[in-house]
Write a structure and sequence with these properties.
Layout (H helix, E strand, L loop, with lengths): L11 H4 L8 H12 L6 H4 L5 H5 L6 H12 L6 H8 L7 E3 L7 E3 L22 E3 L16 H15 L5 E4 L2 H9 L10 E4 H11 L9 E6 L11 H10 L2 E3 L16 H4 L1 H17 L4 E4 L2 H13 L3 E4 H8 L7
Parallel strand pairs: 2-3, 2-4, 4-5, 6-7, 6-8, 8-9
Antiparallel strand pairs: 1-3
Helix pairs in contact: 9-10
């Protein structure tokens, strides 16, 4: 949630943005316009990667203000078919596949279809109750089409559907779902179960079963999804997970706070701006001698997977990577 009282007009949020070229004076002027509710230039230039929330040194959450005003001023040239695609998330057929009640529930949101076929299963996930489909759709993706209100409007329904499962713990595969959970306090909604990020769940499993791990001894580049900006506490857990399975996350320009969006939707809207950055992201990974590009978001993998392969970077979903270290999948 945007907190104007925390903003000291330092301009860092927009100076550091990798999608615009603003100096401090212009950044501060833009922020002042935003605080007055005006249709500032940044509203149409922003590609909704959420990074400015993480760049802000005072925790004012400027992206939340930008996103709200994008909706107010209808700033982004989003094709109608993309709004239709987003709306379709709530209509995906739902299923609650019952498993061992002593295990946490696994929520797939609406990511069942874009997931690689062998991403789930094996000793970490077998026997878990699985929730998937439109009833468990998290709505966070609407921020990427310049809409803020659907999150608030659907937050209680999202929480009610999850709570109705009746589990003490739900593991979220989709980073957007965990991000949505992290936004619940700003909506005044209580989370009546333990909400566990998939990375945290796998890290804990590996720590409990060290005898099952065969270190991979590989170098990887990590494609950090935009929604991870809402859950920065997961970053050190991810590093710990990589260490447990013998994987080196190569140091490179476009990672951690400086990660780039995969570019999926905006490469169609602003191709001249976004496609060179997408190419630079992959080049950065290759030049730093990564063997693979590892993804946490299924849609990021759909967007960049083919191009990663063409750049000699094996596209791997993070659960596949861990299953490889557990001897369940080969390093193909």
């Amino acid at each position: 949630m945007w907190d104007a009282e925390k903003c000291d007009l330092c301009g860092d949020c927009l100076v550091r943005c990798q999608y615009v070229d603003f100096d401090k004076d212009k950044a501060v002027a833009q922020i002042k316009e935003l605080m007055e509710g005006k249709p500032a230039e940044i509203l149409k230039e922003c590609i909704t990667c959420c990074a400015c929330n993480e760049y802000c040194p005072t925790g004012a959450n400027p992206f939340d203000l930008i996103n709200r005003l994008q909706e107010v001023h209808n700033s982004l040239p989003i094709p109608e078919k993309m709004r239709t695609f987003m709306d379709a998330g709530a209509t995906v057929p739902s299923a609650l596949i019952k498993g061992d009640e002593s295990k946490p529930v696994l929520s797939l949101c609406v990511m069942d279809h874009p997931l690689p076929a062998d991403a789930m299963g094996g000793q970490m996930f077998d026997g878990m109750t699985v929730a998937k489909g439109g009833e468990y759709f998290c709505y966070l993706g609407y921020v990427h089409i310049g809409l803020d209100s659907p999150l608030k409007e659907q937050a209680q329904s999202f929480m009610d559907k999850l709570a109705a499962i009746g589990s003490d713990e739900i593991v979220f595969l989709h980073a957007d779902c965990h991000a949505m959970i992290n936004k619940m306090p700003e909506y005044g909604i209580e989370v009546p179960f333990k909400a566990t990020h998939i990375i945290e769940y796998m890290r804990d499993y590996l720590k409990a079963h060290p005898e099952s791990i065969s270190p991979l001894n590989r170098k990887i580049a990590y494609q950090r999804p935009c929604a991870s900006r809402y859950s920065p506490e997961i970053e050190p857990i991810l590093d710990e997970l990589f260490e447990l399975i013998g994987v080196e996350r190569v140091e490179r320009k476009y990672d951690r706070e400086s990660a780039l969006c995969c570019g999926g939707m905006f490469s169609r809207i602003y191709p001249d701006r976004i496609k060179p950055l997408m190419a630079g992201n992959l080049r950065d990974a290759r030049e730093n001698r990564a063997d693979a590009m590892v993804f946490l978001c299924p849609l990021c993998m759909v967007t960049l997977g083919k191009a990663a392969s063409e750049n000699d970077l094996k596209p791997i979903f993070v659960t596949q990577l861990v299953r490889m270290a557990l001897g369940e999948l080969p390093w193909k």
